[in-house]
Amino acid sequence: MSDEHVLICVAWPYANGPLHLGHVAGCYLPPDIQARFERSLGNRVLMVSGSDEHGTPITVSAEKEGVSPQVIVDRFHKINSQALLDLGCSWQPSLDSRGMAHGGSLFNRTSDIRHKKIVQDNFIKLNDAGLFEKRVMKQFYEVKDEGGRFLPDRYVEGICPHCEADGARGDQCDNCGSTYDSVELISPRSLMDPSSTIEIRDTEHLFYRLELFQKLLEKHARSQHHLWKANVRAMTKNWLDMGLRPRAVTRDLEWGIDIPIDHEEWHKKCIYVWFEAVQGYYSASRIWAEENGDKEAWKKWWEVDESGIQPRHLYFLGKDNIPFHTIIWPALIAGLNHANSGKSGDEEIQMPGPGDLALPHNVPAMEYLMLAGGQFSKSRNHAIWLPAFLKRFDPDTIRYHLCINMPENHDTDFNWSDFVEKVNNELIATYGNFVHRVLTLGARFTEEKPLSSFDDAPYCSEARTKLETIFQQITESLQKHRYKEALRLVMSAAQYGNQMLQAATPWKYLKDTSTDEARDSMIKLAFGWRISRFLAVTSQPFLPFSAQRLWLSLGESGDVSEVDWSQAIEWNCPMKWNDEPPVPLFTRLDLEEILEQEKGLIEASDEDQTLQKIKGVKKKKEEEKMTEGVTYLDFETFTKTELKVGRIISVNEHENADKLYVVKIDDGTVEGRTICAGIKEYYTIEQLENKLVVFVANLKPRKLRGIMSEGMMLAADDGNEKVCLITIDGDIAVGSKVM
Ligand SMILES: [Zn+2]
After folding, report:
1. How many angstroms separate the alpha carbon of residue 215 from the centre of ligand 1?
2. Fewest CB atoms within 10 A around its CB: which of 214, 236, 333, 658?
């Protein structure tokens, strides 16, 4: 059993809207899987995150609603922290059941006064060490007779200097995606009061001297090179190659943490949100320790120990956030170490040594989960919201789907039909059915602990070896943050179990188990109980709710999340039994019903088209409903396609096209029909003649290289150079309808 200190840092959700499935796949599910896995290995895990509650998107929302920013952040902190718990993310209880030395978790918020104090203390330290410098910036200013104000970029709108779209934001354009200096914006106006006069004024701010950390960060990136994913390495290198420049740590805004310098010029300014929110990982660890009665306990997860061993820091976030965690945050950590050692900005910055705060170990950042081929977006309201989703579905179904479809190395897409298919045909058909079969077959025996009398794990050596191999592979995949692969491996164990039962056919022997054949079959059924137990332990990080239900159905007790990982392949544990009648682990989903509900949700709202796109369904339009990325046919539309049987009577090469045959088909009419078909690479003329085929009879005729083609023959294409025509099984009259 391992015994490492692991700090799991989860990106802080911004508290101006509910979380959506894109956030979950990118930032919130992977760290929970990792934390659960590490804990079951025996490691000491502290997991920290919280709501990011400052910054202009929140003040803009508040001003638009006419409430204070606090109202907005209170609302979304509550909604989002509850949604994460409902999703099964292990933010509670805050202490590990083995005691404080084993860690726990805290989902905090940046408006916490203790966070503010820690950030201000750090601000003073860095300033005193000479790591800040003062610079003059140009910023829009809203001129008013009384109380004019500086306008942060979000408060300014205008015409994009690149694509000339109106409604571009102060520093970036949603239309063309470009970013620019707010002073480049054409015809700028105030978002809140478009009629007011705005002008550019000078404003003084403090900047963090990021360039001092260039060498150290290059060294750190090199040392972690072998661990970091390609996207993390590339983006970090890109930033370092451009050369680091000072970055503003203060801004003209009142909603934020006060600048701890007692001089009038700073009173209307605040600490820049990036600078303080990223310190939340650190402050939340300290606050967690304080709340649980041992103020110093956080150090085990942050400080390099006497022998130079570093706690393992894992940061989970979306790809847009990578440089923050491989450049900016490590530079702040190194700056704090530098300041703590009493050195000044002119002295060389060192890598952390004993007693210093550790730098990020790995940053397993995710690519994006897309919706209908477009990016999930809170501001454009293009999303499926987590809280609403969890009201309708078992949280494990979305955990399963997002994990098996996780955007680990490239963007992936969410759509409802894929969700339903994966849940029904994989999660239920493979995993759910296997364990249910074992339990229901076992329940046919009436004695106490029905399967125990057939328990003979040594006899099942082949199955044991197979599962031990899978177990090893799951473990390695999780250690490498390959969640998709790990879950597939778990599923392969269920698949193996199904095959084993299929071959053993235990249902044939339930009445008479006296023969050798019957005994062999029953031993395998009993081993099915052990495979189910394997599944409960190994699926726990991915599917905590169903793993727990399964654990109890097997007659085990307690919490499966507290069971040691190696228990999955403990073949000697006593076989238990639960006398309650077995209940299926999952309920099948109905795509049609879901799409109807989605449609209802849209029609119930007065929102514009954007919202319709979000939910994945457009309003009924020309007999056609769309779900994200998939054309969804209703039955009537489907029946409009007329499929018929025809016999190929002659085949000629197309004079003007290398790949086409001109095929004459007897379709039951006097004149027959001609179809141009691109199957020359796959069939000779002789192979085709006289074949009974299926064709689309009511496809609008069109000319292909000069010859009118009246329909299309159906063929299967494996996408890998193999194409086979769909033919008819048996003899039937030409012109018959295909249903
Ligand atoms: Zn633009």
Report:
1. 36
2. 658
Distance of CA 186 from the midpoint of ligand 1 (Å): 11
Q: So what's the pLDDT on residue 633?
A: 62
Tell me which residue of 254, 256, 253 sits closest to 275, measured CA to CA: 256
Q: What is the pLDDT of residue 171?
A: 83
Are 524 and 493 found together in one domain? yes
d(CA 530, CA 519): 17
Residue at 294 is within a domain: yes
Residues of the chain with pLDDT under 70: 1, 379-381, 602-637, 719-720
Asked if the structure places residue 475 within a domain, the reply is yes
Q: What angle do CA 406, 412, 418 make, to 5 degrees?
A: 85
Alpha carbon distances (Å) from 531 to 78, 425, 464, 540, 571:
40, 20, 9, 14, 10
Residue pLDDT, tens place only, 621-671: 333 333 333 445 666 667 778 889 999 989 998 888 788 899 999 988 878
d(CA 165, ligand 1 centre) in Å: 6
Query: HSE on the CB side for 465, CA within 13 Å?
Result: 4
Contacts of 294 (CB under 8 A, 6+ apart): 100
Sheet holding 257-258, edge to edge: 250-251, 270-271, 257-258
Secondary structure letter of residue 592 according to DSSP: H
Residues in the chain: 739
Domain with residue 484: its CATH number is 1.10.730.10
pLDDT at 623: 31
Residues 283 and 254 placed together within one structural domain of the fold = no
Do 649 and 544 have their domain in common? no
CA distance 350 to 335: 9
259 and 307 both lie in a single domain: no
Q: Give the Å distance between the CA of 174 and the centre of ligand 1.
A: 7
386 three-class SS: helix
Tokens matching residue 343: 């050195």
Do 434 and 41 contact (CB within 8 A), yes or no? no
CATH number of the domain at 279, please: 3.40.50.620
Q: 375 CA distance to ligand 1 centroid (A)?
A: 17
CA of 618 to the centre of ligand 1 (A): 27
Residues with CB under 5 A from ligand 1 (ion): 160, 162-163, 165, 173, 175-176
Which pLDDT score is estimated for 83? 97
Task: Give domain status of residue 382, yes or no.
Answer: no
* 44, containing H or E segment: strand 44-51
Amino acid of residue 713: M
- 3-class SS letters over 431-462: HHHHHHHHHHHHCCCCCCCCCHHHCCHHHHHH
- DSSP lists the bridge partners of residue 709 as 702
188 Cα to the center of ligand 1, angstroms: 14
> CA neighbours within 13 Å on the CB side: how many for 196?
21
Half-sphere exposure at residue 161, Cβ-oriented, CA atoms within 13 angstroms: 13
Q: Residue with structure tokens 């150079």?
A: 721
Instruction: Count the alpha carbons within 13 Å of 2 in the hemisphere toward its beta carbon.
Output: 15
- Cα–Cα distance, 405 to 153 (Å, whole number): 36
The encoded tokens of residue 152 equal 């942060």
**Which neighbouring-strand residues pair with 693?**
646, 727
Q: Give this prediction's pTM.
A: 0.80
The CA 185 to ligand 1 mean position distance, Å, reads 10
**Among 386, 339, 348, 358, CA closest to 26:** 386
